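Suppose a colleague, Dr. K., hands you the sequence of a protein chain of 492 amino acids and asks what its three-dimensional shape might be. Before reaching for any lab equipment, you can write down a predicted structure in token form. Begin with the sequence itself:
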Amino acid sequence: MFSKKLFCVMTLSLFVPSTWACRLDPSPNNTYDKQGNNVVYTIVGEEVKEIPGINFHRLHRLPDLAKTPDKQPEWYTEPPLTDLATDFVYSGVNLTRSYYSYHSDGRHILWAGQIVRNPPGLPQVDIATFKVFGRFAADKHSLYFDGKRTENNHGVDMATLTAVEFNDPWLSYDEPEFTTILKDQYHLYLRGHQADNPESFTVLAQKPWYQSGKFTPINPCVAGPVGPWDTLARTSTQIIINGNALDADPTSFTVVRWIPATLLIYRDKNGTRRVSLEDNNAEQPTTIMDSKDCWATFNMLEDKVTWRKEWEGDDCQIETIPGLDPEQFHPINGHVAQYQDRLYAVKKTQFGDNYLDVITLDDPNLIIERRFNAGKHHGYLVTSEGSIEVFESAGPLVLLDNEIPGERESHTMDDQYRPNWFAHDDRYVYVFTGVQLYRYASTWPQYAHIEGQQYKAGYGSALSKSGGRLVTLEGEYFQDMFIPKKKESNKQ
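The predicted structure, expressed as tokens, is then:
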């Protein structure tokens, strides 16, 4: 006989559609048009700008090396170069993002409705050799970024030019044509400026602008993008933030405070410096944190951390959590955050009032980065409804295959993607669905293993393993169902 005990029963309170099918795609809304004998650039909802001296009949979009078939999804079809409606502004969840293309009539280069002209005393734009890679461009004399000359061309190799790929949290954000960091076989290019040998480039850390925690569900049916992310990187001689090189010594560089899209304070051998991250953002953030952000459960400011105690209408009551370094405070989801060896969870009393529950981890080195986390003698579960559940285990917990399922899929509560997490201790085996935990007594839990995991495309169309069953010497476990192992009959 095997006993089954239900530790935590939770209902799914949020629903997220299961595919990207309903995700809204931007449509062109800034166009080049003919008005009389002149060319105008029409910005929808704003203004019409006249561009003198442009031949409308010869105007076309320049080929973009970032949009070659090998750099695009199979379903993507690039519009013809004669399609002039290729500039648009994409108003999304966390930012307003502009997409532009380089155009030419054979005599001039245009970017965002303006003629590209170099400052006096510098070589003129060379139309015949002008090549494009997204926001970056080059002719035989100069390099360009966002339609402005950045420096002399010291030998960019357009044939090997490519975007530096970042491993963005959950979603792939930077399309090749939009990235700020490129490389060829010889150099890096930071927002159009030539830099170090590309082989020395390393991403140090990334932070999303919207700091709700990586287990906060994402709704694909709202207008995106849901990013972006600040990216901190280095080379052998430089520190780079969002494609901008800092005046910093890489060897002694340390972050003091980093507020995404807003502020970076760092320290090196030359002292402490402050850098505004707003000044160089082409995108317009909508979620920059201020001293009282009612949308945020936790608010990590420059020198303190606050939490939202009450929220009614357009106003809220916030309280400071004393003694915390905001740089070490990390949201897990919309209700839970981790600070060193403690968890801070906003919960409700029986009367519906919010209170802050502080949970000390039994392992000071444990980082809550999965749905199912193992401490020394406790399990810590991040549920799909946004809570944190803690239970005591019979000895150390052993998580079975920490890479299954991939968190990129599992944090989104995809109805088509049914993940399971499995574990055992000295007496029990466990199955966690993200909503509910099941525990089964086992005589030989140390022999538990997983079978039947399958790769399946879930939210975001990324393949991850899901489903499966936990197998022991006693039988098989499918979430809330146990199938005993059949006894083999004795042969006569």
